[in-house]
Amino acid sequence: MPSGSTFDHAVRTAAPRRGGDHAPEKQAITRRVIASRKSVVCHGPAALLAAVAEDGSHAYAGYRITAFTNEEEQMAGNADKAKWLLQDRLTEAGLTVRVGEPFAPHVEVDRNLVTGQNPASSGPLADELLKKLG
């Protein structure tokens, strides 16, 4: 797996449901990317839950993001089946979760992080990434 210094952008799509991706090597790469101030593009915001800094704080605390919302989970019939909801977990980790209309495109850009709320956000998210690539 490459180090954070060998690429300019990371794209994360559809992280494993409710579990995030807590693989230590992926956490380490995420920390290196943040430290080097390179862009992280993430449409699978559950992966952000694994981004814990070496001091134990959350690496994205204070960032403004979007993710699949509690309302969308409810409308999709998944909320009652889930052990936890992504919007709640991200908020608990100290991220500011902004939401758009359910199942409509919504993208947030904060520093080096671009997030999309749902699959309908894929196109606008790609447009934001292209802007960052210049």
TrEMBL record:
Keyword Transmembrane: no
Protein family per UniProt: Belongs to the peptidase C56 family. HSP31-like subfamily.
Alphabetized PANTHER family for the sequence: GLUTATHIONE-INDEPENDENT GLYOXALASE HSP31-RELATED (PTHR48094:SF11), PROTEIN/NUCLEIC ACID DEGLYCASE DJ-1-RELATED (PTHR48094)
Alphabetized UniProt keyword annotations: Lyase, Stress response
GO CC terms: cytoplasm
Protein name, UniProt field: DJ-1/PfpI family transcriptional regulator
SUPFAM superfamilies documented for this protein: Class I glutamine amidotransferase-like (SSF52317)
GO function term, MF aspect, one: glyoxalase III activity
GO BP annotation list: methylglyoxal catabolic process to D-lactate via S-lactoyl-glutathione
Stretch list, region Disordered: 1-25
